[in-house]
Amino acid sequence: MRFLMVSLVFILMTGSAVAQDRLDIGLFSQQDIAGWQQKEFAGETAYSVQQVDDRSVLHAVSAQSASAWYKKVKIDLQKTPYMNWSWFKKTIIRPADEDQKAGDDFVARAYVIRDGGVFFWKTRAINYVWSFTHTRGEVWENPFAGKNAMMLSLRDASDEAGVWVTEKRNITQDFERLHGEKLRFIDGVALMTDSDNSGLSAEAYYGDIYFTAE
User: Fold this and answer.
1) What is the DSSP pairing of strand 185-194 with strand 165-170?
2) pLDDT tens, 27-47?
3) Where are the domains of the chain?
4) Residue 135 CB coordination number (10 Å)
């Protein structure tokens, strides 16, 4: 349900990105959150820009809550297919089975969305998550949205808390592998730290998000 609600919000907004070798989406290091909005699903995760390790980052705290921090922006994957970001888990969350609705909670997740427009059932997403029950590289269907929102564990319980990790993903290749579609555009990016289903709490930090040609 929360996946469909986010996609409907995307439909009501407009946004575009100028083609270039680097496309900045979230410059939290410059305290720039222009264009970012929050969508509440079950309580409100607290998102704020804070100083950590001598730099500004996005801080997320969830107390039995779930809300997405998202930005609608059209990204040309033919020009900038790589999404780059960094994240840091502070509080380790131990939910139930992440394949089930009761365990669909993550200390940190970053996802990309292809908007289906008025045909919202055609909306597709990939959730890159910091998992507890899955190991790195495992893929599964979201328990709320099914195969419309595929989950991919980039980090797992073996990754230490309190350490910054940098990620780089080829969104074109991931969409083709997980959804069987070779996309030209995606329509938005979202972050979420959530703990509503498990009734626990979670805390994480997110660094700048940007897309590159290589």
Assistant:
1) unpaired
2) 999 999 999 999 999 999 999
3) 2-212
4) 11
